[in-house]
Design goal:
The complex is a heterodimer. Chain A is mostly beta strands. Chain A has strands at residues 4-6, 10-14, 19-25, 32-38, 45-51, 56-58, 62-67, 72-77, 86-95, 98-101, 105-110. In chain A, strands 2, 4, 5, 9, 10 and 11 form a 6-stranded mixed β-sheet that branches. In chain B, 0% of the residues lie in helices and 46% in strands. Chain B has no helices and 10 strands. Classes of the chains: A mainly beta, B mainly beta.
Chain lengths: 111, 115
Amino acid sequence: GESVGLHLPTLSVQEGDNSIINCAYSNSASDYFIWYKQESGKGPQFIIDIRSNMDKRQGQRVTVLLNKTVKHLSLQIAATQPGDSAVYFCADPNAGNMLTFGGGTRLMVKP
Amino acid sequence: GAGVSQSPSNKVTEKGKDVELRCDPISGHTALYWYRQSLGQGLEFLIYFQGNSAPDKSGLPSDRFSAERTGGSVSTLTIQRTQQEDSAVYLCASSLDSRFSYEQYFGPGTRLTVT
């Protein structure tokens, strides 16, 4: 079936380095994606989104890249900080009002 | 309140007991969603309410699961005859309405442990 998945379950980076979290999707008709951040004990929080008519979108310290050819998107976090430690999900709202989440990547920031 | 609230934050129950989980959405949000998140997993959609329309129950895993939304606001998720595999964090989200479904705001979740 259609799915959204993540390549790595855990990513460990040094504070100040850049982080890249990857996500693959299978539905070629998907035209909108969301990245969520979920800190321990909390619900997911919206970080950034991107539509399929874009290849790149930048926010504050975060950039999302979309490669429709290979059905891959990535979340880049610049100058990673301890507060960035969380699980990151990519979501594909491909079925009406339901969000489909990949398994998540746990980002750990080393001081 | 400022955000989506859920209660209780933690619930431990014995196998076979019924449990009720509560969600208070953001005031004015007409759409409400329930998800389940097992340990180390992504979110699994359970049920969706939009205004006074019939809910979308397509994600409920079994007939032991049911949900209500009274007065278009507070929602209760009920799990009957709980099983150990029901142990998970149950997350509620709300959005302004279904046209803004992408902008879902999540509560902190209820951690359910079935012993």
